[in-house]
Structure formats: C-alpha cells, structure tokens
Amino acid sequence: MNKAEFQKRYGNSIGKPKLSLLLGEAKTPFEAAKLAVGWRFLARKNVGQGQTVLLLPGFGASSSSMTFIKRYLNSLGYKAVHWSAGFNHGEVGKLLPQVIADIKEHSEQAQAPIKLLGWSLGGYLAREAAREVQQNVSRIVTIGSPVIGGPKYTAVKTLYDMRGLDVESIENSTLKRFEHPIVCPIVALYCKKDSIVSWQACIDRFSPNVEHIEIDTPHLAMGVSKEVMNLLPYALGTPLK
Predict the structure, then answer these.
(1) 8: pLDDT confidence band, cut at 50, 70 and 90?
(2) What is the CATH number of the domain that holds 193?
C-alpha cells in the first residue's frame, strides 16, 4: 500500500492522541475495582475447549499485565499462555521473530492453528507475526492496538524519536506489509477516548476479514476491564449465547 492509497482511506486527520484524554486514564483504578467486585459474576462456560490463546502485552509492559485476561480465559476452558519474550521493550524487529517462534511452537503442540490476543503494541505484533505464519493462526484479537503508522499515531512517538528511530520510515514499512493481507478473522477493540493510541490508527481499512468493536475503557485499564472481559468470548469466536 502506498501513501496515496493510505490517504484515500484514512485522510490526513490522524495524529497523536490529545493530551486532554490522559485524564481518562485516571479511571484505571476504578476499572480494576469494578472487575474485582464483579469477578465472580463474570459468565463461565467451557467454550474454549482447550484452544490455545497466545497473549502479548503492550509496550513497556510484561506478561503480568495480561494476568487477569489469562485467568478469565482459562476459566472459560481456553489454554491461555504468555509469550516467551516477557517484557515488551518495543523493538519490533527483535520481538517479531520471538512471537513467530512462539506461534509455531504452540501450534505444533496443539496440532492446530492457535488464537492470538494482543494489547496495544502486543496486538500489532500479533497481526504482523500472523502475516508471516498464517497457517498457524486461526484468529486475532487486538485491544487498543495501532494497526497503521507504527508509533507515529501514539503517545510514545516522542520516545521513539528520542531513541533516534525514524518514525516515518517505520510507518512506510508498516504500510508495505499490507500488500500481504491477513486472511484469518480479526476482531479489533478500540476506544475513542484512548489517550495512548489514536483510535483512528486502530481501524483496519484493508484486511478482508476484520470486525471493529468500540469500547469505553481507557487504554491503561484494558487489561483489567470488566467490559473487555465480557467481550472476549465473542471476540475469540466462541460467544457465550
């Protein structure tokens, strides 16, 4: 995909999230409290039937940030597993081969394609790894994940600039990868109040089999959100009803 095609589909209005949206992240402790209070009331059915779900955390986070998602998915009968990389340092070129290796390993163990679930940059990594090994992936769920622009349309763009990384070049390379579409189903959760990732960058206007679901959970609370937990069975293709 070239720049002209990108602008045709997305326009020129995408930028970093507004600083005023950061106030919404103050809701994170309240979202965690709501989940704690409502944990025992979350629906529990064995819809996962042992299917493997590989979990990928966001930039600057470790596998522990996915703990509640992992616990809930396991209670639904999935085999939710953390990635092997541990901490997400944001260097996609180094992390992507590790994610691909994880996918191949777990797919081989399961003797079937697996599902991927990534939060923020973890979702981007899930998508790009799946693009390389499509035969090993049956479904992708992204939560607040930029699918275009790399870090360009996120609050961490400045950090990449400070590290001397060429954000424009990263964006161009991400656009080029759309020449090889992801064919498995993708469900993308996004929030228009996201203060870390511009919500427009979470919208995939190119993949042939993608569904977008708007949520009302701030970015930093997405891993501890009752709203997100309730959507996960559907997003993973195993609705409770």
Answers:
(1) low
(2) 3.40.50.1820
